[in-house]
Amino acid sequence: MKSMTGFGRATADFERFSATVDLSSVNKKGFELSVSLPRDWAPMERLISQSVKKSVVRGKVSASVKIEAKDAASSVAFDPDALAAAAESLRKACDKLGVKFEASAELLLKLGEMLSENAAAPDWEESWAKIETVLDAAAAKLDAMRAVEGEALKADLKMRLQAVFEMVAEVENLSVGTAEKYKDQLLQRLANSGLELDANDERVLKEVCLFADRCDICEETTRLKSHIAQFLSTLEENDAVGRKMDFICQEMGREINTIASKANSLELTKVSIDLKNELERIREQTQNIE
């Protein structure tokens, strides 16, 4: 079990350039990848996506590939003519879009970095094998961090599921003898109203039976305990289990809502509210699980 939150960075030196790959991920229902590459390497995005999907099933992933030329003297980043041409192209684009253009040392530095980056690897296809090794190293670090975070989430969820299990046991204890208590209360109310009916009167028994049927929660608690067991079993799986956990949480919520609707005492209502609150905390944690 892994978290969807993590970060991995890897660097490597090659003959013509050095490369740094950063991978970061956060929680998301599906898979989404955004890639930052040198301008001339845009076609590499498809290969990066295929590579990242080998280790990430769900989550919003950001991949950044940065390169730096080894031979700065040959880089156009320090060529005044190249910088002037780039700045002029930018000025024309601003004029066309009606945006005010102001040249500055900071702007020239950014243009220089961009030109240097693009000059570092002239052909993306030739560079892919090298970048792939760095990408794999970054992905391994990302995966390791997500696994560590996943273990922490597992420990927290086990603790919360144990709390839910104990609350279910309390619900079962509170529901014992409910029908009998209701019959006694019904007879007492009738007596207070001046009506004396035998405890075995058909009308009394019918009313008690209807009440017992309405407030019976045996099925709900049985299913709820089954869902807890399924959730605990899912925690030990190595696959992407986030969606499965979401589904189990939904089913647990159904049972808890039914128990709350059948609550016939203040104590049972309080426990039902506690169950809802604890389930919501579990649900929030599962949103971070792949």
In short:
The chain is of the alpha+beta class.
Characterization of this structure:
The chain is elongated, with a radius of gyration of 32 Å. The longest helix has 52 residues, at 124-175. It folds into two domains: 6-147, no CATH class; 151-286, no CATH class. Strands 1-2-4-3 form a four-stranded mixed sheet. The model is unreliable at 72-77 (pLDDT under 50). α1 (45-52) links the parallel β3 (31-36) and β4. Helix content is 63%, strand content 12%. The chain is of the alpha+beta class and 290 residues long. It contains nine helices and four strands. It starts with 5 loop residues before the first strand and ends with a helix.
Largest sheet strand order: 1-2-4-3
SSE pattern, N- to C-terminal: EEEHEHHHHHHHH
Quote the average pLDDT: 83
Residue share in β-strands: 5-15%
Query: Helix tally?
Result: 9
Q: Any idea what the shape is?
A: elongated
